[in-house]
Design a protein that fits this description.
Blueprint lengths: L1 E8 L8 E9 L3 E6 L6 H8 L7 E6 L2 E2 L5 H11 E4 L11 H11 L4 H14 L15 H13 L5 E5 L7 H18 L2 E5 L3 H6 L2 E4 L1
Parallel strand pairs: 3-8, 3-9, 6-7, 7-8
Antiparallel strand pairs: 1-2, 1-4, 4-5
Helix pairs in contact: 3-4, 3-5, 5-6
Length: 212
């Protein structure tokens, strides 16, 4: 279970403090929309939750462990094995077949090539992309690329998925496909899915809303 306790963050000593001592538990099996006015730190909170930034005060807990206080090496291990990321841009390597980008987190987490490819192909098939596995990003649509990005986020079977405006570049039909895939992942695997967004369509879709 992902939670924060008394969380605050500032980029430097003179910067505005964000989050006001936020305490919140992100429900397993649910999609939480993280929203609020520009400048309130939606993306920053995702980076703190994803252990890429360290809180100024308070802590990030995963299954009751203060993971934000772990040494860098252990934080990297948690990030690689237990947290999946989806960004507004799919960030697929334009020079590589799609499946190579999908398996990358699993290889980084220490998986062998064979089990990583098996997991990736299963996810690509589930999201209707099996026939595109060996296409490069320039040979697929933006919606297909973002579905591949969801596969990449899920390939290590994480307990948390963090998504930063994952539908921001998509039309409504493709946005629905991506949101359905994230919701199904939450419901069937008990993951906590957190989506930073200002889009009413995504906010209405979410199971829960956290406003900063």
């Amino acid at each position: 279970m992902l939670s924060v306790e008394g969380l605050s963050f500032r980029y430097n000593a003179g910067a505005e403090e964000l989050f006001d001592g936020l305490t919140h538990t992100f429900t397993p099996g649910a999609v939480t929309a993280l929203t609020g006015p520009s400048g309130r730190g939606k993306s920053t909170l995702l980076y703190v939750l994803g252990l890429m930034l360290t809180p100024s005060q308070g802590q990030v807990e995963l299954d009751g462990i203060n993971v934000s206080a772990l040494p860098d090496r252990d934080r990297s291990r948690v990030r690689a094995t237990r947290i999946g990321f989806v960004f507004q841009d799919s960030v697929l390597d334009p020079a590589l077949p799609m499946i190579e980008s999908v398996i990358e987190p699993a290889l980084y987490a220490g998986w062998g090539s064979a089990p990583a490819r098996t997991a990736a192909l299963g996810l690509l098939e589930r999201l209707g992309l099996a026939d595109r596995a060996h296409h490069r990003p320039g040979e697929i649509s933006g919606g297909q690329a973002q579905r591949a990005a969801v596969c990449r986020a899920l390939v290590t079977d994480p307990v948390v998925v963090l998504a930063d405006e994952p539908t921001g570049n998509l039309d409504r039909d493709n946005a629905q496909v991506v949101l359905d895939a994230l919701a199904a992942s939450a419901q069937t695997e008990g993951r906590s899915v957190v989506i930073a967004t200002h889009d009413p369509f995504v906010i209405d879709f979410a199971d829960q809303v956290l406003t900063l």
